[in-house]
Amino acid sequence: MELNCTRGTAKLKAGELQVAFAGEKTLTLGARQTTGGVANPMNFDHAAHRTVLKDFIRAVQGGTTPAVTGQSALRVQQVIEAIMTSSKTGAAVDLQASAMIA
After folding, report:
1. Along the 102 residues of the chain, how does pLDDT read in single tens digits?
2. Cβ–Cβ contacts within 10 Å for residue 95, how many?
3. Which residues contact 62 (CB under 8 A, 6 or more apart)?
4. Neighbours of 9 (CB within 10 A)
5. For a FRET experiment, which of 42, 49, 75, 102 has its CA 20 to 30 Å from that of 36?
6. What are the b/e assignments for 14-33, b being 16+ CB within 10 Å?
7. Are strands 16-21 and 8-13 parallel, antiparallel or unpaired?
């Protein structure tokens, strides 16, 4: 997956994320994986999702704000929708112009 944005580019390939900031440095996060989502999209580590769910349960039980709020989760979902739309149409999706990200 590759995202080309105004201030940089992010490429996710086999578990390794490369982020290139426009006119600046490049970051590499994660590590290449030989198994996982390529052959089977559901074959990935669920640890991050478990952590978010545990935090949400803790917040509900304790009456506090979870680390991941509904608003931040909605923004991520809107980016996912934009990626899917771009993939289907082959056209760029401007998140700001479409008022998807508030």
Report:
1. 788 888 888 888 877 888 899 878 888 887 776 655 555 656 667 788 889 999 999 999 999 999 988 888 888 888 888 888 888 898 888 877 655 555
2. 14
3. none
4. 14
5. 75
6. ebeeebbeeeeeeeeeeeee
7. antiparallel
Buried-state track 70-85, b at ≥16 Cβ within 10 A, e below 16 = eeeeeeeebeeebeee
pLDDT value for 95: 77
